[in-house]
Amino acid sequence: MVVLRKIDEREEWNALVCRLGGSVLQSWEWGEFRGRHGWRPVRLGSEEAAVQLLVRPLPASGVSGALAYAPHGPVASDASTVAEAAAAAAEHARGLGAVLIDVEPRQPEDSGFKAPGFSASGTSVQPRCTLVVEVRGDAEEQLSALPKDTRYGVRRARREGIVAATSRDGGDLEAFMDLHEETARRQGFALRPREYYRQFMRDLPARLIVARREGEERLLAGAVILTFGEEAYYLYGASSREGENLYASYLVQFEALEEARRAGVRRYDMWGIPCRPHEGHPMWGVYKFKKKFGGRQERYVGTLRRELRPLRARAAEAAIRGYYLLQRLRGKSSGPLVD
């Protein structure tokens, strides 16, 4: 039986999460960052398991209580311990006033994973399906491991005079956000306020990769990645029409893989693809681009939900659906993902 205790030291927490193979969404820094946006991080662990719960009051609905959520958690050395940790986390969440708890462990879809008292919600907050690229030992090995067409794209960008590099310049971040907004208008995805991305870069182990013509200031493409432990994650990307024609995004991704290698990373998570890709899917173009880097597909179980106070939980679920609908109408969030 897993017995969880509260952990309040950053170094102890991150060491435990890294040892158990947890993602950046279970890191101390992610909890602090989400704390700026209405969530309270509660970190629970033992020798064999860890789970960072994010807790917040329910959206205005007339229903008292809170929601508890564990992104990419719990983490543990084996599936049965993950299940036990989820059950233990649910009891802690009940004590914190939560009426329901959502967990999203990175357990394989085909593993038959079950957690006591939890059921599949049919949606996920974090991408349930993704592509993971192996980070190689050096640049030449990394380039050779890419599919032929992708190697061509990287080399073509260089021939066109495109250079890509990691930037810590605040002006580049503002220019990237300009490009991100342009890309969002073109592709129809929701954006957060600019200050969110500024805080993201300040608070998290984030790196900005930018591409431009050598000697020019104007950005043609860019990406934001996170690194934690032995993993890196591609969170945000942007490109101009001109950048697309010059294969700038190919070079950005190659530089991101290089930056990941310099950080000691072994896995580069492309962060989300459609679980059932088809030409009519809104992420079809994103899927086709990410697939060019030859990653291995990983499919997780998605969100598992447990109602801790059933009557209030059902009213809360209706309130949450209404909240996300309002956010979509405002263009702020697409809400939970559905396959």
UniProtKB/TrEMBL annotation:
Gene Ontology process terms (BP): cell wall organization; peptidoglycan biosynthetic process; regulation of cell shape
Record-linked InterPro entries: Acyl_CoA_acyltransferase, FEMABX, PG_Glycine_Bridge_Synth
GO molecular function: aminoacyltransferase activity
Keyword annotations of the record: Acyltransferase, Cell shape, Cell wall biogenesis/degradation, Peptidoglycan synthesis, Transferase
SUPFAM superfamilies: Acyl-CoA N-acyltransferases (Nat) (SSF55729)
UniProt keyword Transferase, yes or no: yes
Domain of life according to the entry: Bacteria
Family per record: Belongs to the FemABX family.
Full protein name: Methicillin resistance protein
Species classification: Bacteria, Bacillati, Actinomycetota, Rubrobacteria, Rubrobacterales
